[in-house]
Amino acid sequence: MPARRTATAPATAPGLDLGDLLADQQVRIVVCCGAGGVGKTTTAAALGLWAAEHGRKVVVLTIDPARRLAQSLGLTELDNTPRPVAGAGAEGGSLDAMMLDMKRTFDEVVEQHAAPDKAAQILANPFYQAVSSSFAGTQEYMAMEKLGQLRAEADRTGRWDLVVVDTPPSRSALDFLDAPKRLGSFLDGRFIRLLTAPAKAGGRAGLKVFSVGVQVATSTMSRLLGGQLLQDVQTFVAALDTMFGGFRERADQTYALLKAAETAFVVVATPERDALREASYFAGRLDEEGMPLAGLVVNRVQRVAAPSLSASRALAAAEQLADSDAGTTTSTTATTEGLLRLHATLAETADRQQRQVARFTAGHPGIPLVEVPAAAQDIHDLEGLREVATALTGG
Question: What predicted TM-score, i.e. pTM, was given to this entire model?
Protein backbone atom coordinates (compact mmCIF):
# COMPACT_ATOMS: atom_id res chain seq x y z
CA MET A 1 0.00 0.00 0.00
CA PRO A 2 1.16 3.61 -0.52
CA ALA A 3 3.20 5.47 2.10
CA ARG A 4 0.16 7.54 3.09
CA ARG A 5 -1.08 4.65 5.23
CA THR A 6 2.11 4.45 7.27
CA ALA A 7 1.41 5.35 10.88
CA THR A 8 4.94 6.18 12.01
CA ALA A 9 6.74 9.34 10.92
CA PRO A 10 10.37 9.03 9.80
CA ALA A 11 12.96 11.58 10.78
CA THR A 12 12.94 13.12 7.31
CA ALA A 13 10.25 13.38 4.68
CA PRO A 14 10.15 10.31 2.42
CA GLY A 15 9.72 10.60 -1.31
CA LEU A 16 6.15 10.60 -2.63
CA ASP A 17 5.63 7.89 -5.25
CA LEU A 18 2.49 8.99 -7.08
CA GLY A 19 3.04 6.27 -9.67
CA ASP A 20 2.44 3.60 -7.03
CA LEU A 21 -0.54 5.53 -5.71
CA LEU A 22 -2.24 5.79 -9.11
CA ALA A 23 -1.51 2.16 -9.96
CA ASP A 24 -3.20 1.01 -6.75
CA GLN A 25 -6.65 -0.19 -7.85
CA GLN A 26 -7.97 0.35 -4.34
CA VAL A 27 -7.44 4.10 -4.75
CA ARG A 28 -10.54 5.41 -6.53
CA ILE A 29 -10.53 9.12 -5.68
CA VAL A 30 -7.58 11.53 -5.76
CA VAL A 31 -8.24 15.06 -4.53
CA CYS A 32 -5.74 17.76 -5.51
CA CYS A 33 -5.98 20.64 -3.07
CA GLY A 34 -4.04 23.72 -2.04
CA ALA A 35 -4.12 27.48 -2.25
CA GLY A 36 -5.08 29.24 -5.47
CA GLY A 37 -2.48 29.61 -8.21
CA VAL A 38 -0.19 26.74 -7.18
CA GLY A 39 -0.86 24.46 -10.17
CA LYS A 40 -3.64 22.19 -8.89
CA THR A 41 -5.33 22.08 -12.31
CA THR A 42 -2.17 21.04 -14.12
CA THR A 43 -1.33 18.51 -11.42
CA ALA A 44 -4.80 16.95 -11.57
CA ALA A 45 -4.70 16.75 -15.37
CA ALA A 46 -1.20 15.24 -15.38
CA LEU A 47 -2.13 12.62 -12.78
CA GLY A 48 -5.29 11.73 -14.70
CA LEU A 49 -3.36 11.41 -17.97
CA TRP A 50 -0.65 9.21 -16.41
CA ALA A 51 -3.26 6.93 -14.83
CA ALA A 52 -5.19 6.64 -18.12
CA GLU A 53 -2.01 5.73 -19.98
CA HIS A 54 -1.30 3.02 -17.41
CA GLY A 55 -4.64 1.27 -17.72
CA ARG A 56 -7.00 3.21 -15.43
CA LYS A 57 -10.40 4.53 -16.56
CA VAL A 58 -10.24 8.10 -15.32
CA VAL A 59 -12.46 11.16 -15.11
CA VAL A 60 -10.91 14.49 -14.14
CA LEU A 61 -13.20 17.07 -12.55
CA THR A 62 -11.87 20.61 -12.59
CA ILE A 63 -13.32 23.73 -11.04
CA ASP A 64 -11.08 26.15 -12.90
CA PRO A 65 -12.68 29.25 -14.43
CA ALA A 66 -9.61 29.90 -16.59
CA ARG A 67 -10.39 26.72 -18.60
CA ARG A 68 -6.69 25.85 -18.80
CA LEU A 69 -7.49 22.17 -18.46
CA ALA A 70 -9.50 22.14 -21.69
CA GLN A 71 -6.64 23.77 -23.55
CA SER A 72 -3.98 21.41 -22.20
CA LEU A 73 -6.13 18.37 -23.03
CA GLY A 74 -6.77 19.53 -26.58
CA LEU A 75 -10.48 20.13 -26.04
CA THR A 76 -12.28 23.17 -27.41
CA GLU A 77 -14.37 23.43 -24.27
CA LEU A 78 -15.30 21.72 -21.04
CA ASP A 79 -18.71 21.73 -19.40
CA ASN A 80 -20.74 19.83 -16.84
CA THR A 81 -20.69 16.64 -18.97
CA PRO A 82 -17.60 14.36 -18.96
CA ARG A 83 -16.01 14.32 -22.44
CA PRO A 84 -13.41 11.85 -23.76
CA VAL A 85 -9.89 13.16 -24.36
CA ALA A 86 -8.54 12.00 -27.71
CA GLY A 87 -5.04 10.57 -27.68
CA ALA A 88 -5.10 9.80 -23.96
CA GLY A 89 -5.19 6.27 -22.62
CA ALA A 90 -3.43 2.97 -23.18
CA GLU A 91 -3.60 -0.63 -22.00
CA GLY A 92 -7.38 -0.37 -21.79
CA GLY A 93 -7.29 2.96 -19.98
CA SER A 94 -9.28 6.05 -20.89
CA LEU A 95 -9.52 9.68 -19.86
CA ASP A 96 -12.62 11.86 -19.60
CA ALA A 97 -12.60 15.47 -18.43
CA MET A 98 -15.23 17.96 -17.29
CA MET A 99 -15.48 21.37 -15.68
CA LEU A 100 -17.97 22.03 -12.92
CA ASP A 101 -20.93 24.18 -13.89
CA MET A 102 -21.99 25.32 -10.45
CA LYS A 103 -25.49 26.47 -11.37
CA ARG A 104 -26.24 23.47 -13.59
CA THR A 105 -25.16 21.10 -10.81
CA PHE A 106 -27.42 22.94 -8.35
CA ASP A 107 -30.28 22.69 -10.87
CA GLU A 108 -29.68 18.95 -11.20
CA VAL A 109 -29.88 18.53 -7.43
CA VAL A 110 -33.22 20.34 -7.37
CA GLU A 111 -34.58 18.35 -10.31
CA GLN A 112 -33.50 15.02 -8.84
CA HIS A 113 -34.69 15.56 -5.28
CA ALA A 114 -37.89 17.60 -5.60
CA ALA A 115 -41.28 16.87 -7.11
CA PRO A 116 -41.60 18.28 -10.68
CA ASP A 117 -43.95 21.13 -9.66
CA LYS A 118 -41.81 22.01 -6.64
CA ALA A 119 -38.63 21.86 -8.73
CA ALA A 120 -40.13 24.21 -11.34
CA GLN A 121 -41.11 26.62 -8.57
CA ILE A 122 -37.59 26.61 -7.13
CA LEU A 123 -35.81 26.98 -10.48
CA ALA A 124 -37.99 29.96 -11.44
CA ASN A 125 -37.46 31.74 -8.14
CA PRO A 126 -35.31 34.91 -8.54
CA PHE A 127 -33.59 34.40 -5.19
CA TYR A 128 -32.67 30.82 -6.11
CA GLN A 129 -31.20 32.00 -9.40
CA ALA A 130 -28.96 34.42 -7.50
CA VAL A 131 -28.00 31.94 -4.78
CA SER A 132 -27.19 29.12 -7.21
CA SER A 133 -24.80 31.37 -9.12
CA SER A 134 -23.02 33.42 -6.48
CA PHE A 135 -23.79 32.43 -2.89
CA ALA A 136 -20.60 32.13 -0.83
CA GLY A 137 -19.59 28.48 -0.54
CA THR A 138 -21.91 27.25 -3.28
CA GLN A 139 -19.03 26.39 -5.61
CA GLU A 140 -17.25 24.32 -2.98
CA TYR A 141 -20.45 22.54 -1.96
CA MET A 142 -21.38 21.78 -5.57
CA ALA A 143 -17.87 20.44 -6.19
CA MET A 144 -18.49 17.90 -3.44
CA GLU A 145 -21.99 17.23 -4.81
CA LYS A 146 -20.57 16.51 -8.28
CA LEU A 147 -17.86 14.29 -6.80
CA GLY A 148 -20.58 12.23 -5.13
CA GLN A 149 -22.49 11.99 -8.42
CA LEU A 150 -19.42 10.85 -10.37
CA ARG A 151 -18.52 8.26 -7.74
CA ALA A 152 -22.08 6.92 -7.76
CA GLU A 153 -22.09 6.70 -11.58
CA ALA A 154 -18.76 4.89 -11.49
CA ASP A 155 -20.25 2.28 -9.15
CA ARG A 156 -23.41 1.98 -11.22
CA THR A 157 -21.94 1.78 -14.72
CA GLY A 158 -18.26 0.92 -14.30
CA ARG A 159 -17.41 3.78 -16.66
CA TRP A 160 -14.56 4.97 -14.41
CA ASP A 161 -12.40 3.42 -11.74
CA LEU A 162 -10.64 6.65 -10.73
CA VAL A 163 -11.94 10.17 -10.13
CA VAL A 164 -9.37 12.99 -9.95
CA VAL A 165 -10.67 16.24 -8.45
CA ASP A 166 -9.15 19.68 -8.89
CA THR A 167 -10.58 21.65 -5.96
CA PRO A 168 -11.91 25.22 -6.31
CA PRO A 169 -9.47 28.16 -6.49
CA SER A 170 -10.61 29.43 -3.10
CA ARG A 171 -8.99 32.04 -0.90
CA SER A 172 -8.31 29.20 1.51
CA ALA A 173 -7.79 25.56 0.62
CA LEU A 174 -9.87 24.65 3.67
CA ASP A 175 -13.02 26.09 2.05
CA PHE A 176 -13.53 22.80 0.19
CA LEU A 177 -13.75 20.84 3.43
CA ASP A 178 -15.72 23.50 5.28
CA ALA A 179 -18.42 23.99 2.63
CA PRO A 180 -20.81 21.23 3.85
CA LYS A 181 -20.60 22.47 7.42
CA ARG A 182 -21.17 26.06 6.33
CA LEU A 183 -24.19 24.93 4.33
CA GLY A 184 -25.56 23.14 7.38
CA SER A 185 -25.02 26.22 9.54
CA PHE A 186 -26.80 28.32 6.92
CA LEU A 187 -29.78 25.96 6.81
CA ASP A 188 -30.00 25.81 10.61
CA GLY A 189 -29.39 29.51 11.16
CA ARG A 190 -31.81 31.91 12.84
CA PHE A 191 -32.27 33.85 9.59
CA ILE A 192 -33.48 30.75 7.75
CA ARG A 193 -35.71 29.68 10.64
CA LEU A 194 -37.26 33.14 10.67
CA LEU A 195 -37.92 33.02 6.93
CA THR A 196 -39.47 29.55 7.08
CA ALA A 197 -41.68 30.38 10.05
CA PRO A 198 -44.55 31.94 8.03
CA ALA A 199 -44.82 28.89 5.76
CA LYS A 200 -44.60 26.45 8.66
CA ALA A 201 -47.15 28.45 10.62
CA GLY A 202 -49.69 28.24 7.80
CA GLY A 203 -49.37 31.29 5.55
CA ARG A 204 -51.30 34.44 6.44
CA ALA A 205 -53.21 32.76 9.27
CA GLY A 206 -49.93 31.63 10.74
CA LEU A 207 -48.69 35.20 10.95
CA LYS A 208 -51.19 35.84 13.73
CA VAL A 209 -49.43 33.44 16.05
CA PHE A 210 -46.03 35.08 15.57
CA SER A 211 -44.52 36.81 18.52
CA VAL A 212 -44.12 40.56 18.44
CA GLY A 213 -40.36 40.11 18.11
CA VAL A 214 -40.73 38.01 14.94
CA GLN A 215 -43.15 40.53 13.45
CA VAL A 216 -40.71 43.36 14.14
CA ALA A 217 -37.83 41.37 12.62
CA THR A 218 -39.83 40.53 9.52
CA SER A 219 -40.87 44.15 9.13
CA THR A 220 -37.26 45.26 9.47
CA MET A 221 -36.09 42.76 6.84
CA SER A 222 -38.85 43.93 4.53
CA ARG A 223 -37.58 47.50 4.77
CA LEU A 224 -33.94 46.44 4.30
CA LEU A 225 -34.44 43.90 1.52
CA GLY A 226 -37.57 45.26 -0.09
CA GLY A 227 -40.95 43.57 0.08
CA GLN A 228 -40.62 41.67 -3.21
CA LEU A 229 -37.13 40.36 -2.44
CA LEU A 230 -38.21 39.22 1.01
CA GLN A 231 -41.17 37.41 -0.53
CA ASP A 232 -38.85 35.74 -3.09
CA VAL A 233 -36.51 34.64 -0.28
CA GLN A 234 -39.36 33.26 1.80
CA THR A 235 -40.83 31.42 -1.18
CA PHE A 236 -37.43 29.96 -2.04
CA VAL A 237 -36.75 28.78 1.51
CA ALA A 238 -40.25 27.33 1.89
CA ALA A 239 -39.88 25.44 -1.39
CA LEU A 240 -36.47 24.07 -0.38
CA ASP A 241 -37.62 23.16 3.12
CA THR A 242 -38.42 19.57 2.17
CA MET A 243 -34.97 19.23 0.53
CA PHE A 244 -32.88 20.41 3.50
CA GLY A 245 -32.54 16.90 4.87
CA GLY A 246 -31.38 15.66 1.48
CA PHE A 247 -28.74 18.39 1.24
CA ARG A 248 -27.40 17.47 4.62
CA GLU A 249 -27.53 13.72 3.99
CA ARG A 250 -25.60 13.91 0.71
CA ALA A 251 -23.03 16.26 2.23
CA ASP A 252 -22.49 13.76 5.05
CA GLN A 253 -22.17 10.89 2.57
CA THR A 254 -19.56 12.71 0.48
CA TYR A 255 -17.69 13.79 3.60
CA ALA A 256 -17.58 10.14 4.70
CA LEU A 257 -16.34 9.19 1.23
CA LEU A 258 -13.44 11.62 1.62
CA LYS A 259 -12.42 9.79 4.80
CA ALA A 260 -12.51 6.35 3.18
CA ALA A 261 -9.37 4.33 2.41
CA GLU A 262 -10.13 4.58 -1.31
CA THR A 263 -9.50 8.34 -1.24
CA ALA A 264 -6.12 10.07 -1.34
CA PHE A 265 -5.50 13.77 -0.86
CA VAL A 266 -2.58 15.34 -2.69
CA VAL A 267 -1.71 18.78 -1.36
CA VAL A 268 -0.15 21.04 -4.00
CA ALA A 269 2.00 24.05 -3.14
CA THR A 270 4.72 26.20 -4.60
CA PRO A 271 8.01 26.55 -2.67
CA GLU A 272 6.91 29.88 -1.21
CA ARG A 273 6.11 30.73 2.39
CA ASP A 274 2.39 31.51 2.03
CA ALA A 275 1.61 28.48 -0.15
CA LEU A 276 3.51 26.11 2.15
CA ARG A 277 1.83 27.64 5.19
CA GLU A 278 -1.54 26.94 3.56
CA ALA A 279 -0.37 23.39 2.84
CA SER A 280 0.62 23.02 6.48
CA TYR A 281 -2.83 24.13 7.65
CA PHE A 282 -4.48 21.73 5.23
CA ALA A 283 -2.30 18.81 6.32
CA GLY A 284 -3.21 19.51 9.92
CA ARG A 285 -6.89 19.68 9.10
CA LEU A 286 -6.80 16.40 7.16
CA ASP A 287 -5.13 14.77 10.14
CA GLU A 288 -7.80 16.12 12.49
CA GLU A 289 -10.59 14.85 10.24
CA GLY A 290 -8.97 11.44 9.74
CA MET A 291 -8.70 11.94 5.97
CA PRO A 292 -5.95 10.08 4.05
CA LEU A 293 -3.13 12.39 2.97
CA ALA A 294 -0.92 10.90 0.25
CA GLY A 295 1.66 13.66 0.40
CA LEU A 296 2.79 17.05 -0.85
CA VAL A 297 3.58 18.14 -4.41
CA VAL A 298 5.97 21.08 -4.41
CA ASN A 299 5.36 22.65 -7.80
CA ARG A 300 7.48 25.05 -9.91
CA VAL A 301 10.75 24.37 -8.11
CA GLN A 302 13.70 26.29 -9.52
CA ARG A 303 16.52 24.10 -10.80
CA VAL A 304 20.01 25.20 -11.85
CA ALA A 305 22.21 23.58 -14.48
CA ALA A 306 25.29 23.55 -12.25
CA PRO A 307 24.10 22.96 -8.66
CA SER A 308 27.65 22.67 -7.36
CA LEU A 309 28.31 26.32 -8.32
CA SER A 310 26.92 28.42 -5.49
CA ALA A 311 25.39 31.84 -6.00
CA SER A 312 28.22 33.54 -4.12
CA ARG A 313 30.93 31.81 -6.18
CA ALA A 314 29.16 32.64 -9.46
CA LEU A 315 28.76 36.28 -8.44
CA ALA A 316 32.41 36.46 -7.34
CA ALA A 317 33.51 35.02 -10.69
CA ALA A 318 31.38 37.55 -12.54
CA GLU A 319 32.90 40.40 -10.53
CA GLN A 320 36.41 39.07 -11.21
CA LEU A 321 35.71 38.99 -14.95
CA ALA A 322 34.39 42.53 -14.85
CA ASP A 323 37.45 43.77 -12.95
CA SER A 324 40.08 41.94 -15.01
CA ASP A 325 38.65 43.01 -18.36
CA ALA A 326 37.74 46.58 -17.46
CA GLY A 327 37.88 48.71 -20.60
CA THR A 328 38.57 45.71 -22.88
CA THR A 329 35.37 43.73 -22.51
CA THR A 330 34.74 41.35 -25.39
CA SER A 331 31.39 39.91 -26.39
CA THR A 332 32.45 36.49 -25.09
CA THR A 333 33.48 37.92 -21.74
CA ALA A 334 30.26 39.92 -21.47
CA THR A 335 28.21 36.84 -22.25
CA THR A 336 30.08 34.77 -19.67
CA GLU A 337 29.67 37.47 -17.05
CA GLY A 338 25.96 37.75 -17.81
CA LEU A 339 25.47 33.99 -17.56
CA LEU A 340 27.31 33.90 -14.23
CA ARG A 341 25.10 36.67 -12.84
CA LEU A 342 21.97 34.92 -14.14
CA HIS A 343 23.12 31.68 -12.54
CA ALA A 344 23.71 33.53 -9.26
CA THR A 345 20.14 34.88 -9.33
CA LEU A 346 18.64 31.48 -10.11
CA ALA A 347 20.82 29.76 -7.50
CA GLU A 348 19.70 32.26 -4.85
CA THR A 349 16.08 31.53 -5.77
CA ALA A 350 16.69 27.79 -5.61
CA ASP A 351 18.40 28.10 -2.22
CA ARG A 352 15.56 30.20 -0.82
CA GLN A 353 12.97 27.73 -2.08
CA GLN A 354 14.81 24.77 -0.58
CA ARG A 355 14.94 26.54 2.79
CA GLN A 356 11.17 27.01 2.64
CA VAL A 357 10.65 23.34 1.78
CA ALA A 358 13.06 22.28 4.54
CA ARG A 359 11.06 24.36 7.03
CA PHE A 360 7.87 22.54 6.00
CA THR A 361 9.62 19.16 6.23
CA ALA A 362 10.90 19.96 9.71
CA GLY A 363 7.35 20.64 10.84
CA HIS A 364 5.88 17.62 9.01
CA PRO A 365 8.65 15.01 8.74
CA GLY A 366 6.20 12.20 8.07
CA ILE A 367 4.56 13.71 4.99
CA PRO A 368 6.01 12.34 1.73
CA LEU A 369 6.76 14.91 -0.95
CA VAL A 370 7.80 15.20 -4.56
CA GLU A 371 9.20 18.25 -6.32
CA VAL A 372 8.20 19.30 -9.83
CA PRO A 373 10.71 21.55 -11.63
CA ALA A 374 9.49 24.88 -12.99
CA ALA A 375 8.54 24.59 -16.66
CA ALA A 376 10.08 26.87 -19.24
CA GLN A 377 6.62 27.72 -20.59
CA ASP A 378 2.94 27.22 -19.80
CA ILE A 379 1.55 23.71 -20.18
CA HIS A 380 -0.80 23.76 -23.16
CA ASP A 381 -0.89 20.23 -24.62
CA LEU A 382 -0.75 16.54 -23.76
CA GLU A 383 3.00 16.36 -24.27
CA GLY A 384 3.51 19.08 -21.68
CA LEU A 385 1.24 17.23 -19.27
CA ARG A 386 3.24 14.04 -19.85
CA GLU A 387 6.42 15.86 -18.82
CA VAL A 388 4.73 17.04 -15.63
CA ALA A 389 3.43 13.51 -15.01
CA THR A 390 6.96 12.14 -15.41
CA ALA A 391 8.20 14.51 -12.70
CA LEU A 392 5.24 13.67 -10.45
CA THR A 393 5.68 9.92 -10.74
CA GLY A 394 9.46 9.73 -10.82
CA GLY A 395 9.32 8.28 -14.34
Answer: 0.79
